[in-house]
Amino acid sequence: MIGKPVARKLRQDGYHVRVLTRDVERAQSILGNDFEFVKGDVEQPETIAQALENCYGVHISLKAGPAPESYDRIEHRGTATVASLAKKAKVKRLTFLSGASTASENTWFYVPRAKLDAEKAIIDSGIAYTIFRASWFMETLNLFVRGERMLKFGKQKSPVHWIAAADFADMVSKSFKSSAAKNRIFYVYGPEEWTLQEGMETYREMVNPDLSILKMPIWFTKLIAAVSRNEQMKDVANLMGYYERVKENADPSETYKLFGIPRTKLHQWCQDQTQEAEN
After folding, report:
1. Residue 275 — very low, low, confident or very high, per pLDDT cuts 50/70/90?
2. What is the Cα–Cα distance from 37 to 209, expressed in whole angstroms?
3. β-pair partners for 270
4. Is the pLDDT of residue 18 over 90?
5. 19-51 confidence digits (pLDDT tens)
6. Using one digit for the tens of pLDDT, what is the confidence trace for 108-161?
7. Could you give the CA distance from residue 256 to residue 170 in angstroms, rounded to a whole number?
8. What residues have CB less than 8 Å from 222, skipping those under 6 apart?
9. Secondary structure (DSSP) of 200-249
10. Are the CB atoms for 8 and 20 separated by under 8 Å?
11. CA dist., res. 173 & res. 1, Å (int)
């Protein structure tokens, strides 16, 4: 969802891109033949060492879950392993996809705690870094679609600055060539604020008018997850419960100053989704 546009943008901007993936065939089917692939995992140091050979820079974008412990194991310790081996391989730059709510005051929840620990491992490596604390990606709207419904978990009343993955990819690529981006943390916000309800309604109106929006309270989602022993649903309930409690409160002006204000608005992104589906 996020790795593909970043990889393609780096390739478009002239980089040779090597992809570390657990499933080479699947990655190749998604990305095509313009990339080099290394089969491996962030929990397999020998595969990481192979992937890092002769690399100038590394972009780290990891997905953990559904078990809470996997966030520390994958996002924190996996990132720490990459950073440590990158130092030995004389890598010059690291970029990392973190979250907009990653902060010490939110470490009571396991996701920002793992991301904050990952950020520290990158900073402690001594390699020049750029950390992106990104808001909600527009692409996540697709994940709420289940059959003929969009599932809305919890109240989610606070608006967020939705960002398109393509705009984020442009920032990542630019950061590798920018000395001003070295050793800095940037908040990645899109150009507009929308609540989750507003985002879903816009998506339904422009992408698939046949969808209905089903609202599921967090407690009910957790109950279903417990009864069905569905770890994925439990993780979603935990995440959405967390997002009910936190609000965006950072200033993205330094990000805008260096990389420009993201161009893609939600209506344009939805229109692009419709066109891709038609093609």
Report:
1. confident
2. 39
3. none
4. yes
5. 999 999 999 999 999 999 999 999 999 999 999
6. 999 999 999 999 999 999 999 999 999 999 999 999 999 999 999 999 999 999
7. 12
8. 234, 237, 241
9. HHHHHHHT-TT-EEEEE-HHHHHHHHHHHT-HHHHHHHHHHHHHHH----
10. no
11. 17
Amino acid at 75: E
pLDDT above 80: residue 279:
no
Tell if the pTM clears 0.85, that is, is over it: yes
Token pair of 20, please?
Answer: 């570390």
- Between helix 24-31 and helix 3-12 the angle, nearest 10°, is 60
Q: Which burial class, exposed, middle or buried, applies to 69 when counting CB atoms under 10 A from its CB (0-12, 13-18, 19+)?
A: exposed
d(CA 6, CA 20): 14
How many CB atoms sit inside 10 A of residue 16's CB? 12
Residue count of the chain: 279
Question: How many CA atoms lie within 13 Å of 76's alpha carbon, on the beta-carbon side?
Answer: 17
Two structure tokens written together for 102:
């990653």
* Residues 195, 63: Cα–Cα separation, whole Å: 24
Q: Which segments of the chain does DSSP mark as H helices, in order?
A: 3-12, 24-31, 45-52, 68-70, 77-88, 110-124, 165-175, 196-206, 218-228, 231-245, 253-259, 266-278
